[in-house]
Amino acid sequence: MPLTTAPDTRPTSISAAILDLLMPHHRTTDRAPACAQAFPHQLRRIADFVRDGAPIVFTLPGFPCKSPNPAKVLGHLPDQGERLSLTFLHALCTEIQRIHPPGAHLVICSDGHVFGDLVQVPDEHIDAYADELRLLIAQEGLTTLSVFDLRDALGDLGLDHDARRARVRRRFAPTVDALRAAIRADDHALALYRGITRFLVQDTADWAGSRSALQRRCRQRAYGVIQRSRAWGGLIAEHHPDAVRLSIHPQPTGAPKFGIRLLDAPDAWTTPWHSAALRRADGTWTLMPRRTAERLGRLVQRDGRPSHFEQA
Q1: Among 35, 114, 212, 257, which is 20 to 30 Å from 26 by CA?
Q2: β-strand 276-279 against 285-288: which pairing, if any?
Q3: Measured between alpha carbons, how far is 67 from 73 in angstroms, rounded to an integer?
Q4: Which pLDDT does position 312 carry in this prediction?
């Protein structure tokens, strides 16, 4: 009888072990805990890298720019919240190297320019934010991380930011009608739409009209933000077709994107760019609006700039 070779199960078991490292940080609104086997899409992607003996590539759209509302953040540049989040992501990649010696690399796909006009943040602030992220990564020796933004994606084409946005939108964005249909049909899409609408309302610091008028305007802008985010996702997939896709938004168990929580926060939607970092008296960190944090602790400066708050 001819000899048969048993299938190599090592990539599968290693993939599950790697995903187990991410599970404690899963950003989701699902209440029931899940195991690695509930994420077949991610397991397959990771197994491909393991089988090839290659570093696992993760992409994480996010780190766009600071909220324009000074009641929520300390300024328009990264601060301790981003520093802690980047350090956490680097530590996660380093942990993966213990299981998979080729290691992992995480590409932060900074998406501020994609919808900067909709969130009302100047493009020069978005440039400064992304450049400071790169500087933080270099200064802290976070060698497993890199930053990819719209400037990298389109290269030196002589286009201004509005033309770059339009180019990506024309090529990759779904129609608003398609988005409306998806939001009506899917609870998680509806939760994302509501979450982004809430952020847009909170980020508006100088609105002179009524609250209901602001909410109507932000609901319309939310469709644009989601439309542009989908377009950015398409462009990322074109540049990094094999990568394991992470998300800073809550994701349901088994979704193609794996939601990841960067730091402790009161809810599943809070991010460092919509908040300030507070170091509690016991040494742990959390995120909250600046106005709340400054009632609980004293402001700490770092390199001549506001960094975070500390409780006594």
Answers
A1: 114
A2: antiparallel
A3: 7
A4: 81
